[in-house]
Amino acid sequence: MTQVLKLAIGSIVVALGVLGLKLWAAQITGSVALLSDALESIVNLATAVAALIAVRLAARPADSKMPFGYYKAEYFSAVLEGVFIVVAALLIFYQAWQGFLAPTPLDAPFEGIAISMVATAINWGWSVVLVRQGRRLQSPALEADGHHLWTDVFSSLGVAVGLVLVVVTGQPMLDAALAVLVGLNILWSGSRLLASSVGGLMDVSAAPERLDAIRQTIAENAEGAIEAHDVRAREAGKAVFIDFHLVVPAAMSVVDAHDICDRIEAALRANDEGAIITIHVEPEHKAKHSGIVVL
């Protein structure tokens, strides 16, 4: 079992535990805000399951049906997370509206807050693990799950502070207002998550610093060629797809041109283990005198 898969399973276990704690807190207090916080944890559980499915798919090797691999499965998971977040926000707004229509005093507020804070601490610790490991393992699904939990931590802290104000001021209407703020917060995080995930599905170019590193590697290992132009790179989970045109002298043999390509590919893969590289070799009259000039 890979580390990514273990982390995805761990997310489901953590989500179940946190959901149970938050539902308990909402039940003993009767708080709409804590119920809204629990609804967000239901989304956490659903997205953790989606992330697990996506991670297992993304780990599959390329085959005849998917010759470029299953890497983008993780982006679908991240998009699904964004959709779930939006649905949760709508449910929270509904609960808040009910709270505005019929505000009720809270029961055992400080006990509920204490239970909620235990759940929040668990979420905080696991979100740090997911974001760090997601970046290290280049897993968009795990990193997206971690960022989502991080927004959950902030909203839970806000709910706790707000509930203290409800008790101090004796204004139960504030409970419903807090629920609205929770909904707006996760709606904002969901929109950001959707935007970044759709970018991955649409083959957005790799980050400028990564492109610069790729160009530098090509320049340092293309001795014997004339130039490399139209260098492009896109990311899909762990994989980075790189393609470019390599111009060589017209008199160069196929064997020599192939040796240059092998040297460049080896250097690129030394920096990006999951690199999938396509090099189009061209004769010197195809030179554009732009891009990476070797000679």
Automatic annotation (TrEMBL):
Protein source organism: Pelagibacterium halotolerans (strain DSM 22347 / JCM 15775 / CGMCC 1.7692 / B2)
Key words, A-Z: Membrane, Transmembrane, Transmembrane helix, Transport
Family indicated by similarity: Belongs to the cation diffusion facilitator (CDF) transporter (TC 2.A.4) family.
Keyword Membrane attached: yes
Any GO MF annotation of the entry: ferrous iron transmembrane transporter activity
Chain segments annotated as transmembrane: 41-59, 79-97, 109-129, 149-170
Database matches in SUPFAM superfamilies: Cation efflux protein cytoplasmic domain-like, Cation efflux protein transmembrane domain-like
Protein name: Cobalt-zinc-cadmium resistance protein
GO cellular component, one term: plasma membrane
Taxonomic lineage from the root: Bacteria, Pseudomonadati, Pseudomonadota, Alphaproteobacteria, Hyphomicrobiales
Domain (Cation efflux protein transmembrane) ranges: 11-202
NCBIfam families cross-referenced by the UniProt entry: CDF
Keyword Transmembrane helix carried by entry: yes
Gene Ontology annotations of biological process type: intracellular zinc ion homeostasis
Subcellular location(s) of the protein: Membrane
